[in-house]
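Example record for the data management plan.
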Amino acid sequence: MLRRKFTIRTSTVVVRRNAFKKCGKFSEQYRHTHDWDMWLKLLTRYYGHCIPKPLSVYRQHPGMMTKQKRKVSYQTKIRKKALKKYGWTHKTLARLDKVFK
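Corresponding structural encoding:
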């Protein structure tokens, strides 16, 4: 998840309210990647599960935020923050890649 090899749409996630209470709210600091930051926070305390069968339809149109040019990318900032906060090293990430591939 830290390497962001896939995207999780906020509209397709089911999270218990108690998990949000423990992990905190979505960060207003990150305009375009606040959801990714939240998934990282949740994954530090809980296991995630994915249903491989598509259960929703995602429609894109020209005016949506994901289609607009992003002036600032927060991905690098979030990645550095997560590495520091959770004590992860590039060696740790490489090991996790092998485990979860």
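Summary line stored alongside the record: The chain has four helices and no strands.
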